[in-house]
Amino acid sequence: MFGASQLGGLDDPNARAEMAVSANLNTIRIVNFLDEKGALATAPYESWRWQRVDRAIASAHGRGLKVILDLSTYRNLLSNAGLNPYTHDWGAFISFVANRRNTVTGVRYADDPTIAIVAFAGEVEPVNSTANSLGVTTLQVTNFFKKAFASWQAIDPNHL
């Protein structure tokens, strides 16, 4: 897998996909697409933001690229709201994403072969550092990944 993150490229996903192709990459990581300072009840589900993700996935597909769908932006939203993202229940959000139907291709995310990997929390802050202001423990992080992966796999056994 040869890839790059699509930071700031959701407004012109075709140009970003073309850049990836011209660099002989085969994967684009879609990340940081939610309002990480937004309201917990609405920010994770804002239609216009997900339509940008839909277009990025469709653009990647059209060029034979794969996608890493990185949901760490949700983790950041929870952290910014003062919640421990590793003990918070991600069930509704995971279900929303896995069952989302791409508005460009019509393919449900859980069934989309363009999505190679779903990432849940990206880079975890060290639990023994001053960056850990929420009291996150190693056990919480480990249990989070087990639960998040199991929740995703229950809906979508097609993706890692």
Pick out its properties.
alpha/beta; four-stranded parallel beta sheet; 160 residues; TIM Barrel; 5 helices
Describe the structure.
The protein is an alpha/beta fold. The chain has one domain: TIM Barrel (Alpha-Beta Barrel). The chain is 39% helix and 11% strand. The protein has five helices and four strands, in the order βαβαβααβα. The protein has helices at 13-22, 47-62, 72-80, 91-99, 138-155, and strands spanning 3-5, 27-30, 66-70, 115-119. It has a four-stranded parallel sheet, with helices on one face. The mean pLDDT is 93.
Here the CATH topology equals TIM Barrel
Give me the oligomer status. Answer: single chain
Q: N-to-C SSE series?
A: EHEHEHHEH
CA-based shape = globular
The total count of helices amounts to 5
Our measurement of the CA-to-CA distance between the termini, rounded to an integer number of angstroms, reads: 14 Å
Write the CATH architecture name.
Alpha-Beta Barrel
Strand order of the largest sheet: 1-2-3-4
CATH class: Alpha Beta
Coarse structural class: alpha/beta
Output the radius of gyration.
16 Å
CATH superfamily: Glycosidases
**Tally of individual domains:** 1
Number of strands: 4
Poorly predicted tracts of residues: none
- Binned, the helix content reads 25-40%
How would you sum up the major sheet?
4 strands, parallel
What amount of the residues lies in strands?
5-15%
The mean pLDDT is 93
